[in-house]
Amino acid sequence: MYFQMGVENNMQNNFGCKLVAVLDMNKLKLFKAEGLKITEEVGQFQLHSEEKQSIERHESLRGNKSGLSAFHDPHTSKKDIDFSNSSRAAVDHIKQLFASDLDYKELYIVASSKLLGAMRQMLQGNLKKRVTKEINKDLINHSIKDIEKAIFA
C-alpha cells in the first residue's frame, strides 16, 4: 500500500506545473495548475483600456489615418486589429511569467476561436512549443471549477 501511494504522488508530480491562460479581447487571467487541478490564480491583466478603444474609434470615424490602423492592410477591420493587439499583449504577459518562473512546463490557452488564431500567430519559439492544449471557449467570466471542467474533462 505504501508503494502504491508513493507511485501516485510521483505521477502527480510528473505532470509538472501548467500555466492556464484564459482570455478575451479585454482581459487575461492566468492560473497555475498542477496535476488535474487549478491551484491558484497567478494574475489578472487588462489588455485594452475602454478609454483607449473609444478614442481610437472616434478618430477612425473622423478619418484620421495616423493611428495604428494606418500600418495595416486597408482591408483589415478594426476588430481584427483589436484581436491582434490583445493577443500581442497577452503573449507579452505570458512570456514574462515563463521567464520569471521556470517551474511551468506547459501552456493551456482558453479563448474564442478568433483570439486563439491571433495567439497562434503571436507565439514564437520555445513558448509556442509549450502550448499543449487550446480550448475554443470564452470562459473569462466563469468560475475556476468551470475552467477546470473545460480543460481537464
Question: Per CATH, what is the topology?
Answer: Nucleotidyltransferase, domain 5
Sheet with most strands:
5 strands, mixed
Portion in beta strands: 25-35%
Name the poorly predicted regions: 1-14, 51-66
Q: Any idea what the CATH superfamily is called? A: eRF1 domain 2
Mean pLDDT, rounded to whole units? Answer: 80
Pfam families: Host_attach
Protein name: Protein required for attachment to host cells superfamily protein
InterPro entries: Host_attachment_protein
Task: Give a verbal description of the structure.
This protein is of the alpha/beta class and 153 residues long. The chain has a single domain (16-49, 77-152), classed as eRF1 domain 2 (Nucleotidyltransferase, domain 5, 2-Layer Sandwich). It has helices spanning 2-14, 50-62, 78-100, 113-122, 125-130, 144-152; strands at 17-23, 27-34, 37-46, 104-111, 131-136. It has a 5-stranded mixed beta sheet, sandwiched between helices. Strand 2 and strand 3 form a beta hairpin. Helix 3 (78-100) crosses helix 4. The longest helix is centred in the middle third of the chain and has 23 residues, at 78-100. It starts with a helix and ends with a helix. Mean pLDDT is 80; it is low at 1-14 and 51-66.
Topology record:
Elements: H1 2-14, E1 17-23, E2 27-34, E3 37-46, H2 50-62, H3 78-100, E4 104-111, H4 113-122, H5 125-130, E5 131-136, H6 144-152
Parallel strand pairs: 1-4, 4-5
Antiparallel strand pairs: 1-2, 2-3
